[in-house]
Design goal:
The chain is mainly beta. It is built from no helices and 6 strands. The radius of gyration is 13 Å and the shape is globular.
Length: about 80
C-alpha cells in the first residue's frame, strides 16, 4: 500500500453462525491488525499505513467453515 490507501476485505462463509477472524499482517515485521466477524459475510476496512500486507482469515472454531468468496480491495482515501 502507498500512503493514503486503505485495504478492504470482503469475505463470505458458511455456516453463517460461525465467527471468523479477519486481519492483515505486515509482510516484513509480522505485526498486524484483526477483528472478529460473524453473520456469514463481512466487509472490513483496514488503514495500516504504507507497506506490504497479507490478508489473514482464521477459523477459531472447532468445526469446519467453508469460505465462499474473498475480495480484496485497495481503497484510495
Amino acid at each position: 500500500l502507498s500512503s493514503g490507501q486503505e485495504l478492504g476485505v470482503y469475505v463470505q462463509w458458511t455456516p453463517s453462525y460461525a465467527t471468523l477472524l479477519v486481519g492483515i499482517v505486515n509482510a516484513y515485521t509480522g505485526s498486524g491488525y484483526g477483528t472478529a466477524v460473524n453473520g456469514g459475510s463481512a466487509f472490513v476496512i483496514f488503514n495500516p499505513g504504507p507497506g506490504s500486507w497479507y490478508v489473514l482469515i482464521y477459523n477459531p472454531n472447532s468445526y469446519s467453515v467453508t469460505i465462499i468468496v474473498v475480495y480484496i480491495f485497495i481503497l484510495n482515501s
